[in-house]
What does this fold into?
Amino acid sequence: AQKVTQAQTEISVVEKEDVTLDCVYETRDTTYYLFWYKQPPSGELVFLIRRNSFDEQNEISGRYSWNFQKSTSSFNFTITASQVVDSAVYFCALSGRTTDSWGKFQFGAGTQVVVTP
Amino acid sequence: DAGVIQSPRHEVTEMGQEVTLRCKPISGHNSLFWYRQTMMRGLELLIYFNNNVPIDDSGMPEDRFSAKMPNASFSTLKIQPSEPRDSAVYFCASTVDSSMNTEAFFGQGTRLTVV
It folds into this structure.
């Protein structure tokens, strides 16, 4: 069975501080895919990044960066110099390649990020 | 591209009534998912389709829930009869092909309130 754990329920920061969101996953699949989504107060789910299990290169996109470490089954997300507009719930998700997991997105519980001016 | 379109955005209904939620996936996407989001259980996958065929409906809570995808551009999720515990936000999502594990794009959701 697949499992995604986001242990941090809520993180509060002051604008311009960095914030790191933890994501730990469990899977028996040898090939799998990891995702991050953002859910702002308006409610929609916005795709941020997709990473496959064979690509452990870290990625940076503007103020966002992702650290994928297969050895610790973690796919952490950092927002640098946070802004009020970053306030949202962030979800980590996992999708596998076995019969039981194929095509399914297993989401973590989400981490609420609150950025205050 | 218009994105995934869900209707209605909000639905308030009385217990026992039938509720139908609608979804139009992104054109060209072959896989469609229905999710339910609640505070207690987070995002739960209810059912997903590939090429209009239901692949996995193990997440459908009970027989009161049913989903159809009569063609590549339309899907419905029906609850009959509805109960207060069905109150949640229901999301539809589509992806190019679930076998490729590509990212899913979500609609804006339908907030259902059953009183």
